[in-house]
Amino acid sequence: MSEVEVFQTNVPDHRTAAELLRQLQTQFPACRINFDLDDCDRILRVQSPAGPPDAPAVAAVLQANGYACTILPD
Length: 74
Prior knowledge:
Blueprint: E1 3-9, H1 14-27, E2 32-36, E3 43-48, H2 55-64, E4 69-71
Antiparallel strand pairs: 1-3, 1-4, 2-3
């Protein structure tokens, strides 16, 4: 059963999101990952096919690039 983690970010634009997406897909190749920058929380969704995504590792990728990334509560 796949699980989804939803994060609030401050990613400013689609170009930046595309670069971060490339990095995330490299680190988490089995996951489906997408940004929704039209949402007020500038959402990042990570869907893992086996168990919950490694939320701290996902957040670390964005933070290493200078962006905020926090898990949104259910």
